[in-house]
Amino acid sequence: MSIPVNEPECRTAFVAMGSDCEVCLAAASRHAIDEAAIAAIKEVIRIEEKYSRYRNDSVVAAINRNAGLDAVAIDTETAYLLNYMGTLFQASSGLFDATSGILRHAWNFKDCVIPTEEQLQRLLPLIGWQHVDLNVGTVKLRLDGMELDFGGVGKEYAADRAANILKERGITSGFVNLGGDISVVGPRPDGTPWIFGIRHPRNPNETIASVAATSGALATSGDYERFFDLGGMRYCHILDPRTGHPVTAWRSISIIAPLAVAAGSYATIAMLKQGDALTWLEESDVAYIAMDQAGCVYSRP
Amino acid sequence: MPRILGSAILSAAMALPGLIPSAHADSAPESGIISLRYLSYRDKQPGLDRITVSAPSLYILFPVGREWAFSGSRVMDSVSGASSRYHSSISGASRMHDTRQANDFNATRYFERATLSIGAANSTEHDYKSEAVNVTGTVSSEDNNTTWTLGFGNTNDSINPVNNIVVNEKKHTRDYLLGLSQVLTPNDIVQASMTYANGHGYFNDPYKMVDNRPRDRSQSAILAKWNHYLEGDSVLQSSCRYYWDNYGIRGDTLALNWVKPLSNGVTVSPSVRYHTQSAANFYYDPVYDPLLGAPFPLGFLSNPTGFYSPDQRLSAFGAITAGFKISKSMAGGWEADMRADYYQQKSGWRWFAKGSPGLEKLTAIILQLGLSKKF
């Protein structure tokens, strides 16, 4: 989670995708700001509705309903996103798997219950991007009971889309912050960078580092978003698709990249890479700030 | 499973729609461009160096705000050499030298998902003047993946050949264009367009003997293009075009172009193109009337006012163009490029049919140099 440190000129807060969100802008007139902010927020809500797995009328619901049955016609935007998630699957050697969301049936973070191995083994065969049949204009989940989930990219994609809408409306100063995933529209009105603090994974009131940005994006993946602690162990929502168990190596990994969607993907995959995370991020030539379970902070500018 | 490096994630993210103000979004270009080019064209047939053209040109693109862009260009052609007076006959070749000056101006207004541009052009040679106007509009879908293009052009020419074979002849042409561009996948863009031109007036080559063509000409073409992005940032552009007109010419053109970025801002693009066509139905083979001799076609006397043309461009042939372009982007918005094309046209290269007999092959070399700067 990242928190803007300097107070922006004009802030519109809203709730979407289960997170606190804000659009912060500076522009010539209050009217221009309002119009642009509304267009950006509408875009976030459009993406939330289109890709929500909680809505019966969403694209995801239609794809999942037809798992093991039929190919579902998809529009170009959905095809792009599925194609992108296919790239993530390959680039992560299978760790980022958009079909692993089915594990939520076993993991109940509200009631703090560790699922039995048997419960997990029942779900694991239904996970596997290789069972996603992506063709021009259609997608099909080959196995009955499989579930596709855009949760791994939806929020960051929405942040970038909203920021781009602001840019296309001529806004040159501001940022979009969706639950700590930030896409910068442009520097502060005086040309100086925005300063974003990276939240301490164990103490919400403390930051572990700050990042100055005039453009680009910042996204964080951490073990403190949905989790429970039991017997001295933290069980977080980032689950290894091979075992069904939560990752444990890192408290949080923040990535600075030109796009929030890329930053978010790097952060999630790095969390899943566990002990290999930093080597992989170095190889990928990505700037990061990471905190391990001992509280040590590692960074690469 | 092919291994993909982590660094591929960013480029894959960049390909997602609507995340960065895209080059083909409907807003005016962010920077202006000034470019100087030089083109040299030289064609020849065995035993005859035909036409040499050297053409320096200047082009300026000037955006005003986010909604307007203006562009203009000026070309000065200098044409010299010999053009055969009929078929590919060398003996009848007439020497000539001419200069041509052409200007065009274009204004484009950018709307949220649409563009509208109007243009005007003129071209002046001492025996040929041409004036043209055109209007083109585009409309894109909300996701910017589909773009429709509609265009209309009007051209008025006046022809005053130095041999006074005709005086103050006119030609009037109207052009129509309908195009569709569709992003199919993140790596594939297809385009289809249909053009139709309807002209009325003087279409003859005044310097060719026995050249009398219909005064109405309608030309149609369907073009399909496919741009496919390959791994490693290279693009394979392929296109095919089918052409037909009321002169009886049917033509097919297939083209392949590979654009490959190398390191240090250098891009290379080899290309190859094949064109084949049937002859116009009034084109006559170099078989001459036994009484009148060359260049009069067999049976000319029985129909002296009929349509005839010995123009090699209206014959049946096949032609291959092989080209190579190299460009380099440099600091400060500078870019330099160089392009060479080799063209050869032969009757025997016509596809699935015989070409027009008795014609010499024609070869041409086209060289282009360009230097441009963004500002």
Q: What does this protein look like?
A:
- The complex is a heterodimer of chains A (301) and B (375).
- Chain A has a single domain (1-301), classed as ApbE-like domains (T-fold), CATH 3.10.520.
- Chain A is 30% helix and 28% strand.
- Chain A has 7 helices and 16 strands.
- In chain A, the strands form 4 sheets. An 8-stranded antiparallel sheet of chain A has the order 2-3-7-8-11-14-15-16. Chain A has a 3-stranded antiparallel sheet with strand order 1-9-10, with no helix packed on it.
- In chain A, β7 (173-178) and β8 form a beta hairpin.
- Chain A is globular, with a radius of gyration of 19 Å.
- With 375 residues, chain B is an all-beta fold.
- Chain B has one domain: Porin (Beta Barrel), CATH 2.40.160.40.
- Chain B has one helix at 8-14; strands at 33-45, 48-64, 68-83, 94-110, 114-124, 128-140, 146-159, 169-185, 188-201, 216-229, 235-245, 250-261, 266-277, 317-330, 334-346, 362-374.
- Chain B has a 16-stranded antiparallel beta barrel with strand order 1-2-3-4-5-6-7-8-9-10-11-12-13-14-15-16.
- In chain B, a hairpin with a 4-residue loop joins β11 (235-245) and β12 (250-261).
- The mean pLDDT of chain B is 90.
- The A-B interface holds A 75-77, 79-81, 83-84, 87-88, 90-91, 93-94, 136, 157, 160-161, 164-165, 167-168, 170, 257-259, 261-262, 265-266, 269, 280-281, 283-286 and B 1-10, 12-21, 25, 27, 66, 143, 145, 183-186.
